[in-house]
Structure formats: C-alpha cells, structure tokens
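Hi support team,

I've been running sequence recovery on a batch of backbones for a student project. Most finish fine, but this one hangs at about 90% for roughly twenty minutes before it completes. I'm not sure whether the input is malformed or the queue is just slow. I've pasted the structure tokens below so you can try to reproduce it. Let me know if you need the job ID as well.

Thanks,
M.K.
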C-alpha cells in the first residue's frame, strides 16, 4: 500500500487513505491568506490503490513534474492526474506569488531512470535554442525561485523589475519575452498563449513554473545576470 507525504516549507502532512485532503487558502493544508488563491484549490484522494491530484479550483492551473524535471504535466481546473513518481513537484502561481509543494509517494512500484550524463541548465531544449539574452531573461524572472532555500514563497518580478535587473529597457524586455514564449509555445509548452494570435497575460508566471520545474534554468545559471549579452 502506498502512502503519501506532502512537504510544504519544511512542514509535513500525511493525507488519510479514506478522506480527501484539500489544499488552499482555507483547507486541510492552508497555504497562505493570498486573496488570489482559492479557498480550496487542490485535492488529493486515494482510489483503487492510486493517489490522485485534482484541480478543484476555477482559475489557477498547476505545473506537476517528477523530481528530475523529465516528465511534466499542466493540470488545469476541473482535471486530475495520478501521482506515480516517488517524488513529485507541484508548482502554481496565485497573483504575484509562486508556491511549491513536494509530494513523496512511499511504496511506489515505479522507478525513475536518470542517465549518468544527464545535463541540466543547457541552452537547448529539444530543437529549441536560446540566445544568451533570452536565457538571461528567463533567469531574471526565475531568480527568486532559484535563490529560495527549500520549498517556499517566491515573488515573480514585474516586467519593470526584471528589465531593471538586466539593465534593459522595458520595451526590449517585452520583445524578448514574446520571442521566448513563442519558441516554447511552438515546442508544445501549454499556458503561454491566450488565443490563436495572443500571448497569455500571465505568461511570466507560467514561464517561471516551466523553466524551474523542467530545469531549463538552475541556480548555476544565476551568474548570467551579470554577463553582458551578445546583442
């Protein structure tokens, strides 16, 4: 029998096999009093020997991935997915704040295989390559998450703040942000486009969630913030 343990900011929670376990602003696991966060947002349930994570909110989507970042799913409102990895990272953004949970499955039959020469933080994801300045943009938005000590709260920088951090004009930052989101959208990353020809208004938060959980950027990339870009 598999048991579930949730680590949030160093505090551990163990959902019951027989009762739903809710996460939100006023729930079994109270995340924060953030008004952008649903009172009950995520729900863990155990059915037929499988743990499920359901998004019972109406506005916020969730990035869910295995510990290595090799498998990632986007859980939109009204949907659910099974928890199958020994360690699963759950990341979501409410307003300007990004939250992270670590979910540990004890007794899982699955086995994660990580190659010995696995690379992280490279500038090529599949067939998509990023220039130095595009990588700098991603790191500037992810800086609070990359500097965090364990699972905690992180404020995503505003466009103006991130542009100032890089010494760029806001117009240049927005142009490059559009280019980065276009590239990732073409490779199938969900949540970056609001319509057929429109980028999503919350693309910064979605970009941060994807980049951090997929290991597109890591703490080792932070020195890029102080490097002069090629353009």
């Amino acid at each position: 029998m598999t048991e579930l343990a949730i680590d949030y900011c160093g505090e551990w929670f163990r959902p019951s096999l027989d009762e739903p376990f809710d996460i939100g602003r006023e729930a079994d696991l109270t995340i924060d009093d953030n008004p952008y966060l649903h009172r009950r947002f995520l729900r863990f349930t155990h059915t037929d020997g499988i743990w499920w994570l359901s998004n019972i909110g109406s506005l916020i989507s969730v990035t869910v991935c295995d510990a290595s970042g090799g498998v990632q799913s986007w859980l939109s409102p009204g949907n659910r997915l099974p928890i199958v990895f020994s360690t699963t990272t759950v990341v979501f953004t409410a307003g300007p704040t990004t939250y992270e949970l670590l979910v540990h499955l004890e007794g899982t039959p699955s086995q994660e295989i990580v190659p010995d020469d696995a690379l992280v933080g490279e500038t090529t994801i599949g067939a998509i390559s990023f220039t130095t300045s595009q990588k700098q943009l991603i790191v500037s938005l992810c800086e609070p998450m990359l500097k965090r000590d364990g699972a905690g709260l992180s404020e995503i920088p505003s466009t103006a703040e991130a542009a100032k951090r890089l010494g760029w004009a806001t117009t240049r930052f927005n142009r490059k942000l559009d280019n980065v989101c276009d590239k990732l959208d073409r490779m199938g990353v969900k949540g970056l486009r609001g319509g057929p020809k429109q980028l999503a208004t919350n693309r910064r938060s979605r970009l941060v969630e994807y980049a951090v959980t997929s290991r597109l950027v890591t703490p080792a990339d932070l020195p890029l913030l102080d490097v002069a870009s090629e353009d």
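--
Follow-up from support: It reproduced on our side and the slowdown came from queue contention, not your input. The longest helix spans residues 170-186. No action needed from you.
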